[in-house]
Each structure stands twice: as structure tokens, then as C-alpha cells.
Amino acid sequence: AGAGRDNCRGMGGGGIPVAEENECALNGVDAVIDKDLASSLLAVDIKAEVLIFLTTVDRVALNYGTPQQVELERLSLYEAQQYLREGQFPPGSMGPKIEAAVEFVENGGERAIVCRPEYVVEALAGEAGTVIE
């Protein structure tokens, strides 16, 4: 067997996405890190009780952008999962935030909140945004 990775030099990770070429060679690769899911993983890891996702809308909405739009103050974990399955929260829009909120609550978080940055205090008090629990 070869010397193995432990004897390779200059192999620091630093969080840069890489692919292993051989025992002692790593090549940088393109990668996309989803900020919402990464935030959820970190929040679970540090055992946070609440995770807030900041966005540009007042509340999460069903039928967003249509005459049937309905803003939601609260979502149960089950409801959030159901609406995701139904396609209510598209991947390029609210989907990643709701998926990350679901992951957070499923893994021990008390609640996740989606709100505008200027309403964080109100959202924590349950007076703004959407709470997923």
C-alpha cells in the first residue's frame, strides 16, 4: 500500500470543494452550497431553538402571485411537507427556505421563522412572518 493521505503535504481542506484525483492529489471542483440548508445544518449542530430565514416577502404564501394567494402565519411540520410535495414552494423561490425549515424542525429545532429583516423582533414575538413548527 502507498503512503496514504497522512503523508501527503499541502492537503488542507479549508472548505473548498475538491475531488480526489489520487492518493495525494485533490482538484478543485465547482459546487453550489445552499445557504438555507447549510444554515439549517449549522443550527441543528449547535442545538439552536429557533432559526430565522430572511426574505423579501411578509409571509410565506400559497398560490403566490395569483389572485388566490393566501399568506400563512403558521405552518405545522406536516403542512409544510404537504405543500412542498404539492409544489406550492418552487425550488427557485421559497422552496429551499421551507425545505431547510422542515429539516431544522425535524431534527430538534423548536421553530423556524420566515420573515423580512425589518420584522425580526415582531416575528420572534409571533406578530410577523410565518412560523413553521
Strand order of the largest sheet: 3-7-8-6
Q: How many helices does DSSP assign?
A: 4
Task: Please state the CA-atom Rg, rounded to the nearest Å.
Answer: 20 Å
Structural class: alpha/beta
What is the global morphology?
A: globular
Q: How helix-rich are the residues, as a percent range? A: 25-40%
Description:
The protein has helices spanning 35-45, 77-86, 95-106, 120-124, and strands at residues 18-22, 25-28, 50-54, 60-62, 70-72, 74-75, 111-115, 130-132. With 133 residues, the chain is an alpha/beta fold. The strands form three sheets. A four-stranded mixed β-sheet has the order 3-7-8-6. The protein has a two-stranded antiparallel sheet with strand order 1-2.
Question: What is the structure about, briefly put?
Answer:
This protein is α/β, with parallel strands linked by helices. The chain has 4 helices and 8 strands.
Characteristic key phrases:
4-stranded mixed sheet; 29% helix; alpha/beta; globular; two-stranded antiparallel ribbon; 133 residues; disordered N terminus
Which SSEs are present, and which pair or pack?
Layout: E1 18-22, E2 25-28, H1 35-45, E3 50-54, E4 60-62, E5 70-72, E6 74-75, H2 77-86, H3 95-106, E7 111-115, H4 120-124, E8 130-132
Parallel strand pairs: 3-7, 6-8
Antiparallel strand pairs: 1-2, 4-5, 7-8
